[in-house]
Design goal:
Elements lengths: L14 E5 L3 H7 L4 H22 L3 E8 L7 H24 L2 E6 L8 H14 L5 E9 L1 H14 L9 H6 L11 E4 L18 E4 L9 H12 L14
Parallel strand pairs: 1-2, 1-5, 2-4, 3-4, 5-6
The structure holds farnesyl diphosphate.
The site of farnesyl diphosphate has 19 residues, from α1, α2, β2 and α3.
Length: 243
């Protein structure tokens, strides 16, 4: 793990979640197609993965396709499905070599093409024993859908109402092992959560940057981690301000 200036290695966030926003605007500004913006987002993503590994971040989660993204023009949806499939094929060995474990959260059996599900399963299987970092891709993911799905599973499991606690709900989310994000980064100057990790983000620090996703690089991740480290997290308590 390399030392990164201005970052305290003992307080690196365990889990960083990212909303990769602004691909369409990046492309439009250059007179390109929106899909060219998504394609340019690939380098941003894998440079960010390298940066996360450099810092020793244990969990990285990115929003690749939301349950609301089906409303986009059919050509763009088709592109995103094919693009994700090709990324998984082209990048899985590289992730495996870096000891990265890949996981997916989202509604996998709803509208997602079979071929893509197969690629997801292959990537998960290939990397399942890796431990350096868990790279989770939120695909066909919605925070409300995740809570609805958890409630359905709790009812199906026959758990009595008076036994349901926050812990129970946590155990029935898509990945019960995934810790809550310490920090959520959203690019492109939008100040919204957009149905991302609704349950999990309850106490996360939020970092917003004007950078459009295709321009994002590991240095932007480092800047976000410095921002995070400059904040005091109180989780509803009063922290060190006890005077
Ligand atoms: C938002 O930009 C971005 C997306 C909907 C998808 C981004 C996906 C990738 C970079 C690929 C990730 C793939 C894997 C397998 C991890 P936007 O279109 O909303 O931009 P806009 O707000 O400017 O229109």
């Amino acid at each position: 793990m390399a030392a990164v200036p201005g970052i305290d290695p003992s307080r690196v966030p365990a889990h960083v979640a990212i909303v990769m926003d602004g691909n369409g605007r990046w492309a439009t500004k250059r007179g390109l197609r929106r899909t060219d913006g998504h394609a340019a987002g690939e380098e941003a993503l894998f440079d960010t993965v390298e940066g996360a590994l450099e810092l020793g971040i244990k969990w990285l989660t990115v929003y690749a396709f939301s349950t609301e993204n089906w409303k986009r023009p059919p050509d763009e949806v088709r592109f995103l499905m094919g693009f994700n499939e090709s990324i998984l094929l082209r990048r899985r060995d590289e992730m495996h070599e870096r000891d990265v474990r890949m996981r997916f959260i989202g509604r996998r059996d709803w509208r997602v093409p079979r071929r893509l599900i197969k690629r997801m399963d292959e990537a998960v299987e290939l990397t399942r024993n890796n431990r350096t970092m868990t790279f989770t891709i939120a695909f066909n993911y919605g925070g409300r859908a995740e809570i609805v799905d958890a409630v359905r599973k709790i009812v199906e499991a026959g758990i009595p109402a008076n036994k349901i606690t926050e812990r129970t709900i946590r155990q029935f989310l898509y990945d019960p092992e995934m810790p809550d994000p310490d920090v959520m980064i959203r690019t492109s100057g939008e100040f919204r959560i957009s149905n991302y990790l609704l349950w999990e983000l309850a106490y996360s620090e939020l970092v917003f940057t004007d950078t459009l996703w295709p321009d994002f690089r590991r240095e932007h991740l480092f800047a976000a981690v410095r921002d995070y480290q400059s904040r005091e997290r109180r989780f509803g308590g009063i922290g060190n301000d006890v005077g």
